[in-house]
Write a structure and sequence with these properties.
Ubiquinol cytochrome c reductase core protein 2, isoform CRA_a; 3 helices; single chain; Metalloenz_LuxS/M16; metal ion binding
Length: about 70
């Protein structure tokens, strides 16, 4: 784990602060993960699969199918 050294711990604090604007200690992160219920995962999955679909492609697009053909 990167927080086992002083340098790793400070790096973790800095990374979190840059990404989220605050620092959350590992035990708090683990508590939040443990608090996720099955229903939360199902709700997120339903939202993901029912959302508007999109596609991207690059390179030679001559044989690229349309989104509705996938």
């Amino acid at each position: 784990m990167s927080v086992e050294t002083s340098e790793g711990f400070l790096s973790e604090i800095g990374s979190q602060a840059l990404a989220t604007g605050s620092y959350m200690p590992p035990p708090t992160v683990l508590q939040q993960i443990d608090a996720v219920a099955d229903a939360d995962v199902v709700k997120a999955a339903k939202k993901f699969v029912s959302g508007k679909k999109s596609m991207t492609a690059s390179g030679n697009l001559g044989h690229t199918p349309f989104l509705d053909e996938l």
